[in-house]
Amino acid sequence: MLNTRVIVTRYGGPEVIDMIEEPLRKPEKGEVRVKVQSSGVALADIMRREGKYPLSPIPPFTPGYDAIGIVDEVGEGMQKYSLGDKVAVFFNGTGGYASYVYPKDDELVKISATIDVVSGVAVILNYVTAYQMLHRIAKVSEGERILIHGASGGVGTALLELGKLAKLEMYGTASLAKHSIVSQYGAMPIDYRNEDFVEVLRLHAPEGMDAVFDPIGGRNYERSLQTLSKNGRFIGYGYTSILEEGSPEDWAKDWENLANKQTTVNGNPVYLYIISSLKKEKLDWFREDVQFLLSLLEKGKINPLISHRIPLQEAAQAQELLEKSLSIGKVVLINE
Predict the structure, then answer these.
(1) Does 130 reside within a domain?
(2) Buried b vs exposed e over 8-17: b needs ≥16 C-beta within 10 Å?
(3) Looking at residue 75, what is its pLDDT?
(4) What was the pLDDT predicted at 246?
(5) Which band of pLDDT confidence, cut at 50, 70 and 90, is reported for residue 247?
(6) 16 and 69 part of one domain
(7) Coiled-coil stretches, from where to where (predicted)?
């Protein structure tokens, strides 16, 4: 039997993505082998493909954070897992785009056999990110006002849905064509291309934002800080502006400056969130949050917005959808 794996052959555009087939190997000690059913696609995959993510892996490498699949072989020392177990897999940014993967124990969460593999894979990266930023970091409470940048994306729509459940007053930036998506969660959409979100918020919420979630970076961070209320918290969780201009060094320098300051000039707390870093520090939180969110999914209390379901072999096209802002919600690779 063969394993099909997507690889980035060199830094560049979608054309650098290739597929390889290799013999299946047995899991090593401390690993299980998982037959992948679905894998998630993320903007950070594109940043790594272009070599713009800080400490991007050296090609060739396989992209991908999140996957769901079935354990089909168990390595030595992994007796807590059994053949046929359904599992969520979370890698540190590389490895997920494959038909078989070999996760270690700290990369695995056992999940219910009835979890839908498409909606479920949206939970692992996007909803855990949103939930942890809202409840572990910002510690939001009912009635608070929040600003969500990139509100129509995978994490953005997760923030909107979880924010609605938490009864927050929400504002979200998105292109005009995607405003109906933002509105359906009860948020006020702001057209970032034709409106100044700082001015719009000054008009509609002069008290300011209690929490701002910003994956864009650069000048957007500075302007987001201007919207904070007296007790507002700023959470930066990415730097997508780097796809248009700048270098990994700019991102690293900006984050280092913010991390050193820890507060704005007005004393508002500044947090920088990386899901893989928090998972490393608090694996129990990660597992607890995956299980909690999947239980909400099973009860029908959350319904992740799935933009496209695309065969694994068309991973380059899947990334292009994100890169060109043609997707709304989560793009999922399906392994038949």
Answers:
(1) no
(2) beeeeeeebb
(3) 98
(4) 83
(5) confident
(6) yes
(7) none
One domain for residues 258 and 149: yes
Q: How confident is the model at residue 302 (pLDDT cuts 50, 70, 90)?
A: very high
Residue pointed to by tokens 């000039």? 265
214 within a domain of the structure (yes/no): yes
Q: Which two tokens stand for residue 168?
A: 């927050």
The pLDDT score that the predictor gives to residue 336 is 78
Which domain does 164 fall in, by range? Answer: 141-273
d(CA 92, CA 101) in angstroms, rounded, equals 13
